[in-house]
């Protein structure tokens, strides 16, 4: 998750010392998939597919359902989520979301240990505890650490610079997407419940439509595939078996033919 070009090359050099083949593999994936500095200005700090993985996990129980039952299952799940998350957002009284407020408080504590040297009303040199200097520009909302402009959230250096200007607020330099209002707007929609089928008002044009079976080919013999398709760049290599008798990879205890040294002690 390199935030600067220097960090990007430092990480690659570190990986080269472990195994030179790693660089080739990462180059095939593309630097934008793992390096923040190469990912563009609207990536924020999201570099994983954890949200999709969470959906896969909670919906795994519906994998064997029919299509209509899967639709009902997903509707009920989304109806529950929208209600719970909207209520949680409504109970939040801070400007930012709860997680982001905690993040800002931690940054403010870190910023108190930094030295700020202003050069004008909007540009500052900030020196951290390691005596490393960073340049913060509040007009461009950027810092040489890279996190300010990439995450669209103040870094500790920006917080330190803002702190010496009493008329400025950190909230001004944080993206609206981190606010409680944006959180509430995300879950403001309504997933309407569905009554029993007898009470449905179905248009005549829909009633006269015939739902034809799929035109796909016959399913091939064998057990159908249930495991999900891995994402691009995701490694799903099979785990090699290790023998519990000789501790060598590639076979198990039952098929082991390797001699075992006798412990004479």
Automatic annotation (TrEMBL):
Q: Which GO terms describe its molecular function?
A: zinc ion binding
| Stretches assigned to the SWIM-type domain | 134-166
- Protein's UniProt keywords contain Metal-binding: yes
What residue spans carry the region label Disordered?
204-231
State the UniProt keywords alphabetically: Metal-binding, Zinc, Zinc-finger
The UniProt entry, under PANTHER family, shows: POLYPROTEIN, PUTATIVE-RELATED, PROTEIN FAR1-RELATED SEQUENCE 5-LIKE
Task: Tell me the protein's name.
Answer: SWIM-type domain-containing protein
Lineage at the top is: Eukaryota, Viridiplantae, Streptophyta, Embryophyta, Tracheophyta
């Amino acid at each position: 998750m390199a935030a600067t070009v220097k960090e990007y090359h430092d990480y690659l050099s570190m990986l080269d010392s472990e195994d030179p083949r790693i660089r080739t593999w990462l180059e095939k994936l593309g630097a934008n998939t793992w390096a923040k500095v190469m990912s563009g200005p609207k990536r924020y700090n999201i570099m994983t597919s954890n949200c999709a993985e969470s959906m896969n996990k909670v919906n795994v129980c519906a994998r064997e359902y029919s299509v209509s039952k899967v639709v009902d299952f997903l509707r009920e799940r989304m109806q529950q989520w929208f209600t719970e998350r909207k209520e949680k957002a409504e109970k939040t009284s801070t400007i930012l979301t709860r997680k982001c407020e905690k993040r800002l408080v931690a940054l403010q504590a870190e910023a108190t240990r930094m030295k700020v040297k202003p050069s004008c009303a909007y540009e500052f040199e900030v020196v951290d505890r390691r005596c490393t200097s960073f340049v913060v520009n509040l007009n461009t909302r950027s810092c040489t650490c890279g996190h300010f402009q990439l995450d669209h959230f103040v870094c500790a250096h920006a917080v330190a610079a803002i702190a010496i200007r009493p008329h400025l607020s950190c909230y001004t330099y944080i993206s609206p997407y981190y606010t409680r209002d944006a959180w509430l707007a995300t879950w403001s929609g309504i997933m309407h419940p569905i009554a029993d089928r007898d009470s449905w008002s179905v248009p005549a044009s829909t009633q006269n439509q015939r739902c034809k079976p799929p035109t796909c080919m016959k399913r091939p013999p064998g057990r159908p595939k249930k495991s999900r398709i891995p994402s691009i760049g995701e490694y799903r290599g099979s785990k090699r078996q290790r023998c519990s008798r000789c501790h060598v990879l590639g076979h198990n205890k039952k098929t082991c033919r390797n001699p075992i040294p006798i412990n004479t002690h």
